Amino acid sequence: MSTTILNAPTPDQRKLELLREHFPHAVETDAQGRIRINASALQLALDPTNPAGIQVEEDGYELR
């Protein structure tokens, strides 16, 4: 039983596989094997009528 737990995919691996399954053009892998999620391609796939995508504004506080 312990071998199945050790070989089971992590939650992050499952989420990445779901992204690759549903949005294959949004997940890129470079020559070094690093994985990059193309946010603009993902936004366009989720809402093709809004090519500008979702605009995110960051509000915050700064302590100097």
Can you describe this structure?
By secondary structure, the chain is mostly helical. The protein contains 3 helices and 2 strands; from the N terminus they run ααββα. The chain has a two-stranded antiparallel ribbon with strand order 1-2. It is extended and about 45 Å long. The mean pLDDT is 80.
Helix content range of the residues, please?
Answer: 40-55%
Content-based structural category = mainly alpha
Characterize the largest beta sheet: strand count, sense, and whether it forms a barrel. 2 strands, antiparallel
The number of distinct helices, counting runs of at least 4 residues, comes to 3
Contiguous uncertain segments of 5+ residues: none
What is the overall shape?
extended
Biggest sheet: strand arrangement: 1-2
Mean pLDDT: 80
Strand content: 5-15%
Order of helices and strands: HHEEH
Work out the radius of gyration: 17 Å
Number of strands: 2
End-to-end C-alpha gap: 54 Å
Features:
single chain; 64 residues; mainly alpha; two-stranded antiparallel ribbon; 3 helices; 2 strands; extended
